[in-house]
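Example 3.2
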Amino acid sequence: MRRNRIIWGVLWVLSVVCISLDGGAVTYGFFTAITLVPIVSALYLLAVYKLFHIYQELDQRFITVNEPVSYRFALADEYPIQFSGIRVRFFTSFSSITDLDDETEYELAPHSRIEKETRLICKYRGEYEIGIREIEIQDFFRLFRIRYKNKERIRVFVKPQLIETDSVGDIRLSDAVRSSEQSKSEPDVLSRDYVPGDDRRYINWSQYARTGTLMTRLLTGTDHQEIAVITDTYRRDSEPSEFLPAENRILEITLALCYYFSRNRINFSEYHLQNEMVCLNAENTKAFDELYEALAEVSFNSRNTHKSLYKSVLRRRDIFESSMVFIVLSVWDRLTDGMLRELERNGLHAVICFVSDNEDLRPELSEHRSCDLIQLSPYRDITGGLK
């Protein structure tokens, strides 16, 4: 394009020189033709912009991460003018399209149509736009190029991938939950901070006499749940490129854990914030498919703060009656550290599934006596580590 502009500039200067030396009809005609070239090119681009149409569609609007779906698009020239130098640019950050690229240049004869059918794969869970992002058009003389956003975009809701695995990171789940096989039948000496609304019959008065702090005894029994999975739904970042990979991985881990427990008939409950604490398990969803659908619709936002999560966890007696806890999150701060200390103080072993590929953000857990840490990358398989 730059070369063509230089050639046009040279020719225009030569036409001016010719007029100066010889003012005949031929030289004036040459000057007029050269001068009109960019004007005609600009008018042509305007016509293409107004008249050119793109059609695209998916077989389904609700799709799953890494599940190929049929994708079709068509370029249409419905007018008696030829369109040349057309390129389509695709969304590539969160999805990929097979057998097509951004460098293909299309030409459409008058009243013609080009159709393409291929497969599209979405990389992350969430709601975002896919397919053709923008269009690039050039004039016949290759002097100008303009890009503009596609007006008819496709927005999809992508469900998380369900992964069947017996390990997360370098920890085998069978080893991690082995201690949960033991049930308890008597009131335990374990206790937690008293929360207004707790049954006063379970207040640990002897501990209150020693410390001056109201504490509630933890009741445990043969019908208690085995595993608690706490999923953090706090969104710290505002850019989709930052939060989508992490949120996708968080839900993949949570689903993988729940699916493992369900397959192995281990009682479990999953907890997450949606303005208030939501509890899901195989009993109240009747089947794992329903639990999957419920988790697929979980929303992450900045209102689901760690302060709210911490308070909600402290109010849940059933969490403290569990034999162990999995915590899945991508942001670590003093509040999550405090929540972990409270769980440990009540005798609960915790496994932290921390989603981040930045080792500098790795939680410091050396002072915690009863927890395991798994750090997982948002961009790698959950059965692997950061490398």
